[in-house]
Amino acid sequence: MTTPSPAPGASAPAVPAWSGPPVEVGLIGAGPWARAMHARMLAAGPQTRLAAVWARRPAAAREVAEPYGAAVAGTPEELFERCEAVAFAVPPAVQAELAVRAARAGRALLLDKPLGPDLASARTVADAVASAGVVSQMVLTKRYHPATREFLRRAAGLEVTGARSCYLHGAFLGGESATGWRLEQGALLDLGPHLLDLLDAAVGPVTAVRATGDPRRWVELTCEHGNGAVSQASLSGTVPLPGARTRIELFGPAGELVFDTAGIDHEECWPVLRAEFAAAVRSGRAGELDAARGLRLQELIEAATAS
Question: Where is the Gfo/Idh/MocA-like oxidoreductase N-terminal domain (predicted)?
C-alpha cells in the first residue's frame, strides 16, 4: 500500500485569533533572507511588529527597516533595548555570538539553522538560553507547513523499517544563496538540519549517523534509529534542478508513506511560525523546536562529520 502525503494546504493548522499588543521584535541581519522572509513576516502582524533592524552595514539595515517603519539600531545592544524578542538572519558564526548576548539581555530568540558554525558554539547558545530562561524557537521552515504536520501525524502511527530521503537544489552554484559559509561548509551544515529533523521526528530518534562524500558536492547520510529502523539522506546544493527537491519515503509492514514538497507554497509557513513564536513569547513557554532542538541537530551533524 502506498500512502501519499496530503495535498498542499490540506488540514491547514488554524492560526488562533490574536488579542493584545504585538510582540516587538528586533531583526539582526539585512541580507537576502532578512529581506525576503524575516522582515515582511514580522511586520505583517498582528502577532508581531518589526521594531528595529541592526546590520553591520547601516545602509543595508535602513533599506530593510524603512518600508515597515522600523527603527535602525546603531548597535546590537540598542536593538535589544527596542524589542522583546530578537530574530536572526545572519551567518551561523554571527548568530552564535549575538544570540548569547541577546539571551543574556533577557530577549526571546527566533533562531535560524544551524544554531552555530560548530557544536561548541551551538552548545554555548543553548546553554545561554537555558541559563537566562528565555523563550527560543528555530526557523526550521518546513515544520510550519500543514502538509509537513500531516505527514508527521501519519508517520507517528506507522511501524517504520527503513526510509530514504533527499534535499537537493542548485542554489550554491550562484545567486544570493551562494554565500561564503555555505560554499565553505556545504550542504550538511545548511540542509542537514532540515532533513535530520524530519527523519528524527518521522522515523524515530536518531542514535547514530555516518556520512560519506563531500558536503560541498554531494553527501550521503546513513542514520540508525532507536526503534531499529535505518534511513538514508542525500544532500546537495550543487545539482542544477529546476527547483529544490525535498522528499522522504517511509517503508514498513503497512506499506509506504511519502512526503514530497514539490508544489507546496512556503508562504503558508510564515503565519504559523509568527503566531507560534508570539504565543511562546507571551506565555513564556517554548515549543519543541527550541534551541535545545537546534543543539540536538548540531550534535547529529557533528557525529556525521566525525564518521
Answer: 24-137
At 215 the pLDDT is 86
Cβ contacts of 117-124, under 8 Å, gap ≥ 24: 117/91, 117/92, 117/93, 117/181, 117/185, 117/189, 118/298, 118/302, 119/298, 119/299, 119/301, 119/302, 121/92, 121/93, 121/96, 122/96, 122/294, 122/295, 122/298, 123/295, 123/298, 124/96, 124/100
Q: Are residues 54 and 99 in the same domain?
A: yes
pTM above 0.90, yes or no: yes
Domains: count for the chain: 2
Give residue-wise pLDDT tens across range 249-258: 999 999 999 9
Q: What is the DSSP string of 29-80?
A: --SHHIIIIIHHHHHH-SSEEEEEEE-SSHHHHHHHHGGGT-EE-SSHHHHH
